[in-house]
Design brief:
- There is one protein chain.
- This protein is mostly helical.
- The protein is built from seven helices and no strands.
- Helix 3 packs antiparallel against helix 4, helix 4 crosses helix 5 and helix 5 packs antiparallel against helix 6.
- The radius of gyration is 23 Å and the shape is elongated.
């Protein structure tokens, strides 16, 4: 079979089929980003960077330090690095005014609250870290549920 014959037997989409599809509506809102949403994106990114730094620290200490269990230290470091992806991706989405980003950003803040409580109860210098984390988490949640932020993300009240 020649290449001309095999090329003619491959299915082709006609222009009429593609013209029948309705155009996609703009899924993401456009417009200026409110300062509250910018702040929420920055705080979420800050949390992601802190998790990234902690993950790298755990990995380095697992490799170069003298942990009781190097395998456990490495696994912990990799887990923290994976967890850093959620607030970083959410921050990028908030910065770009993507509707989907509000959910991961809120989940990150809700997950941070028990961590803040644990740090607070640990005592010593960790009390300050727990208070700071709790303030950032509650503040970011407040920014994310603000009507200006939800409107900028294209999230409105449900129509009855």
């Amino acid at each position: 079979m020649s290449s001309k014959q095999s090329a003619s037997k491959t299915p082709r989409k006609s222009a009429a089929v593609s013209a029948e599809r309705p155009p996609r509506p703009a899924a993401e809102p456009a417009g200026p980003r409110p300062a509250r949403l910018t702040a929420a994106a920055a705080l979420s990114a800050l949390e992601g960077v802190a998790l990234l730094a902690a993950g790298i620290y755990l990995l380095v200490m697992g490799l170069l330090g003298k942990p009781d269990s190097p395998q456990q230290a490495e696994t912990g470091g990799l887990t923290v690095l994976a967890l850093a992806a959620l607030p970083l991706i959410a921050a990028l989405g908030l910065w770009r005014l993507r509707r989907w980003s509000r959910g991961p950003a809120m989940i990150t803040q809700i997950m941070a609250l028990p961590v803040a409580w644990t740090l607070f109860n640990a005592g010593g210098a960790l009390i300050a870290a727990g208070i700071a984390l709790a303030l950032v988490a509650v503040g970011t949640l407040a920014l994310l549920v603000n009507p200006m932020a939800t409107e900028a993300l294209g999230i409105g009240p449900r129509e009855g």
